[in-house]
Amino acid sequence: MQAIDTADGSRTLYSERYAQTFHSRHGAARESRHVFLDATGSAAALRAGQPLRVLEVGFGSGLNALLTADAARCGGAALHYCALERELLPGACLRPLGHAALLHHAELAESLYSALDATLDAGRRPGGARLQIELAAGIDVEILCGDARDARLAAARHDAIYLDAFSPDSNPELWGEDFLAGLFATLRPGGRLATYSAKGRVRRALLAVGFTAQRLPGPPGKREMLLATRPG
To answer: Per CATH, which fold does 27-229 belong to?
Structure first.
């Protein structure tokens, strides 16, 4: 992994394996807020004190989780954040990204990084492990390690889904109908799924499994993104 600066001053990681950055070079934090927190309505709901259950596909650097937890802390809202991740990264790798400086409550970042370090130092590795982290009172993060397709997700449990896997071209198994059908099932009726991808085949797959889907203006550097809703 290589840390890189992005256009809004925040940093992200570059994956040599997938030849992609974890977040946009045009602004990592700006993309996260625009695509995931704002489009799903999560940021507004949490800041208004509404409890939420959020599912993320692709925990990565933890940026989406930290920004969501920060919104919950600011609003005094309860948050359960569940993330699917194949390869956990240690806090020692994530601290230099400086994401704590993006938060109103910087201590949330250290709570996350310390828990990741403790888990990996103890020899626990992805492949069926379930990591529970309490970032603050009423705010917890659950990371399900291993292949996201193997995760057992309860029906109609989540209010919002952040689909932030690597691109459909490099990680196609997480963008097909079989996987998306599972995301549809775990999203409550009326819940929203957001993703940075605006590819036609992703939109068609979302529609095929029962979502309504629309293209919205994307963050800086990207013309469009997708927002899907479970009817009802």
So the answer is: Rossmann fold (3.40.50)
Handedness of CA 74, 80, 83, 89 (dihedral sign): positive
b/e per residue 33-72 (b: at least 16 CB within 10 A): bbbbbebbbbbebbbeebebbbbbbbbbbbbbbbbbbbbb
Give dist(CA 86, CA 165) in Å, integer: 10
109-151 per-position pLDDT tens digit? 999 999 999 888 755 555 567 899 999 999 999 999 999 999 9
Give me the helices (H) in the chain, please.
28-31, 42-47, 63-75, 91-94, 107-121, 177-186, 200-208
46 pLDDT band, cuts 50/70/90, is: very high
Beta bridge partners of 4: 12
Overall pTM > 0.70:
yes
Q: In residues, how long is the chain?
A: 232
Task: Count other C-beta atoms under 10 Å from residue 132's C-beta.
Answer: 9
Give the span between the Cα atoms of 161 and 62, in whole angstroms.
15
Between the alpha carbon of residue 182 and those of residues 41, 57, 79, 194, the distances in Å are: 21, 12, 22, 15
* Listed residue (88, 73, 100) closest to 129, CA to CA: 88
The pairing of beta strand 212-217 with beta strand 224-229: antiparallel
Residue ranges covered by each domain of the chain:
27-229
